[in-house]
Amino acid sequence: MSVTAADIPRVPSSTLADSVLERLTAVYGAAADPEQAAPMRAYMKDVAPFLGLTTPVRRALSRTVLEGLPRPAEADCAAVALRCWRLPEREYHYFAVDYLRRHARVCSSGFLPVARHLVATVSWWDTVDLLAAHVVGALVAADPKLTADMDAWIVDDDLWIARTALLHQLRYKERTDTERLFTYCLRQSGHPDFFIRKAIGWCLREYAKTDPEAVRAFLARERGRFAPLSVREALKNIGA
C-alpha cells in the first residue's frame, strides 16, 4: 500500500521531544557497536540498519536519556515517536515503542493515526506486535468507539494493519470482545501470509488462557477454515 504525504501525521512542536531526541541520538550514537549491528540487521531481514545495541544495553541507555525529564503529554508522545521513526536505525524505533508503552495512558483516541503510521512504516513484527498489544490495544480499551477503526483495519490490504487488529485485544483477558475476536480470525482465515496465520493462532492461544472452552468450541466448529499453523498455535496449551 503506497503512503502519501497526506497519510503522514504532522509532528507536533514539543520542547520535551527536542530534549529527548538530542539526548537520545548522542547517547545511543556514542554506544554504537558495528560488529553487533550486522548480525542484528540480518536477523531482522534487513528491515532497517542497526546501531548494534543489545536489549539490556539499550534499556540502560534509555534510562540515562530520560533521567530527570518530565512526563509527557500526548503531543510530546507523538513528537518523540514520529521523530524517532524518521531516524534510520532500528534502536530508535524501539525507543519510541518503549516510550509509548510507558505513557500510553496519556494518549487519547486522536493518537490512533500516529499509531497507524508507526505500524505501517518500516513494518516488521518486532515493532508492530508491541504497538498492537500495548498502544493500539490501550487506545481502544480507553475509547470503545475505536472498535469501528479496528473493524476497518482487519480487512486492510496492509497485512501489518490487519495483524494489529487481530492482536489489539491480546492483553484484554476477561475484557476481550469474544465475538469480535472470533469474527476477525474468520475474516482473515484464508490469508496466505505467515504473519497473519501466526497472529490468528497467537490471539486465540492467548484468549484460551482466559476461556479455553470457548476457543475449543470455536475451533471445533470452524477449524476447517484455518491453516494448520493457526490451529496448532491456538491449541498449543489446551489440546484438541
Structure description:
The protein is mainly alpha-helical and 240 residues long. It has 13 helices and no strands. Helix 1 packs across helix 3 (55-66). The longest helix is centred in the middle third of the chain and has 18 residues, at 125-142.
Separation of termini? 38 Å
Largest sheet: none
Order of helices and strands: HHHHHHHHHHHHH
Residue-averaged pLDDT: 96
Quaternary structure classification: single chain
Would you report the number of β strands?
A: 0
The percent of residues in helical segments reads 55-70%
What percentage of the residues does DSSP assign to strands (E)? under 5%
**Morphology:** globular
**Which class of secondary structure composition applies to the elements?**
mainly alpha
The DSSP helix count reads 13
| Uncertain stretches of 5 or more adjacent residues | none
Please state the CA-atom Rg, rounded to the nearest Å. Answer: 19 Å
